[in-house]
Amino acid sequence: MADLDGLLGGIVEGVTTVLLFSPSTSYHERFADLEDVSVVVVGPENAVGAERFVELPLEFESITERIRFGIEGALDHEFVADGEEIACATTVFNDGIDGVIRARAGEMNHSGVYDLFTNSRADSDVIRDAVDVAIELGQKGQKGKPVGALFIVGDAGKVMNKSRPLSYNPFEKSHVHVGDPIVNVMIKEFSRLDGAFVISDAGKIVSAYRYLEPAAEGVDIPKGLGSRHMAGGAITRDTNATAVVLSESDGMVRAFKSGELILELDPEEY
Amino acid sequence: MALAVSTSASTAVAAAPVASALAAVVSTVSPTAGPIAAQGGVARNLVSRNVDVVLLGVILLVGVLVAYLVARAGRRLLVAAGVGSAVESTASERAARRLGTSVVSVLAWVLALFVFLVFAVLALGSAALLDYRQYLRDFIDYLPGLFLAVLVLIVGLVVADKVELLVGERLRGIKIPSVGVLPVLAKYSVIFVAALIALGQLGVATAALVVVLGAYCLALVVLGGLACKDLLAAGAAGIYLLLNEPYAIGDEVRIDGTRGVVQEVDVFVTRVESDGEEFVVPNQRVIRSGIVRIRE
Known about the structure:
heterodimer; A: alpha/beta; Pyruvate Kinase, Chain: A, domain 1; seven-stranded mixed β-sheet; five-stranded mixed β-sheet; 8 helices; B: alpha+beta; SH3 type barrels; five-stranded antiparallel β-sheet; 9 helices
């Protein structure tokens, strides 16, 4: 008679690396004693002091995205080799690790989400902060009404030369950075007016109300997205910037790089 | 010390019988006193001895009580002042925990011990076991210094540990093994200064150590100044550039013969980019050479 271990143990059979997503210290310690399995911790911060660690910039609600990001990060750090069998232990329903998923590194299409955060021109913290602001704006809207917003992050000098002001710049001679707490309030107010926010590599908000003038040819973005997405997507082809767009019509946060849609998030899930 | 002064004043009242007891002791020991006088003296002496023992017991009891209260109040005060959480995870706190106590308790007990010592000396003095005036005055004079020295030493050790932690934390991003020397150096500097202050309180000659400290500080200032000269100049220039913004991100400029688009201005450097080349120009060079803004 087959027992449960024999049937379900197949999931972790032949696995050489375990990815632990935000484990507790005691949980991690039990894994650290294992002899022939290497452990990689994936999480927002290295709370357990693990040797091999991949930073998760967002708490991805979608498990597929989360695991994909973890595997891409582990590949990039060379914690795992291409084609290696991996077990991913992560939270599916509530607190604590309650699910194990088997995957093969490099099997999935390279989505570029990891690259978006770590290999962009702007600092990864700055991109994360811009995405955070967009998500928060998407959740709350402006006085309860849905708003749209467009953040162009990185390569600010070039972006400024490929755009023109729609109104005078409220951020002139100010030194606010996108992670500052006051910024969320300011951006919420300024998002009422049209135009893009331009943010420098180090996170300084250079300008608001910018009308982007990129060359739009050859931009391949999904049909049905409006002019805000088109402008944002197109400028990332012309420059090394990353665009974070909050859609006014469907409320989704999307990120573009090199003219391609890389990341799509629903703010309601966060 | 107000406590000690007031208690010594109150015992000054009690000192009158003590003085007579003292005189009795002297008279019994004195070989010149006659045998009859000695007999009467012994009887009186026995009575006053009993009184003295009671007095001694009372004073010691009060001392223990006051010391206990001081320890409790001190502990509460220290906790309220956030000392407990401030010293968390320092080496001294860990050492204290291993001994089954904590830095806050140690401090509170040191305080209590000193209060008790004051009472003990008073008690011994009143029981005429010590030469009241001489020893007591010496000891009372010495006590605040001793207390401060112990306090400074404990606080110094804790602060040194904290400094080591903080510096280590700041340098953790730099993965060079030799950087590990810096936190330890900072720690021992603090301990050295604390020890110096403590020894000074005790009246030990510290002139040589002060000279060492002076040389160390001088070396730190001179070498630090030399090493940070350019950074200081860049920082001063950068503050002007940030406040007045003679050029902004996106402007085309020529700085020191380098032409390009400004990508970033921070306190120390300006980044100018042209044709895929990024120039990182120190801000003092921007100010020194002047800026050409190019408008078409």
